[in-house]
Amino acid sequence: MRAILLETLYEWSKIPYQKWFKSEEPWDISVSQLLQFPKETLGFYLGAFLLKHDFSPQPKLENHDVFHVLTDTGITVPEEIAMQYYLLGNGKKSTYLFTVILIGTILYPDKFNLFRNAFKKGKSAYSFYQLDFRKLLDTPLKTMQTTFLISTS
Superkingdom of this entry's organism (predicted)? Predict the structure, then answer.
């Protein structure tokens, strides 16, 4: 029930968030275009992630899926909340992030250790949340993870 509540809130908030809070230009790239990047690159891994989960790039929200790829975070509701904790630890601050963390922590108190560990991982990594990932799609994923000390385990 709590997962359904959060997923419903996300669906209701996604379009206004894209429209009024995201100023970036959409990447205008397809999964098939991403999969044409060399196999070791962020672009290829992003395409594989989207294909695996039957997702398509969401205009102006592409970075969200990049965060999943970089941190090797799953897509369950607790994992989505944990990723926001990871990003908070990495220095990201936004109304959306704080809202997800607040509601998620209230609804998933049993996942507190997961959230705390994600926050610590984000804190240990060099700041990466603000990068222009569209320009880094041809960069090897492992290079990015190593360079920014992004822990995936």
Answer: Bacteria
Q: Is residue 98 part of a domain?
A: yes
Tell whether 22 is covered by a domain.
no
Strand partners, 140: 41
What's the pTM?
Answer: 0.86
- The residue to which tokens 């359904």 are assigned: 4
CB atoms within 10 A of CB 86: 27
Give the DSSP per-residue string, 70-115.
Answer: HHT---SHHHHHHHHHHHHHTT---HHHHHHHHHHHHH-GGGHHHH
**Please, are residues 99 and 16 in contact by the beta-carbon 8 Å criterion?**
no
- Residue 27 makes CB contacts below 8 A (sequence gap 6+) with 57, 59, 62, 134
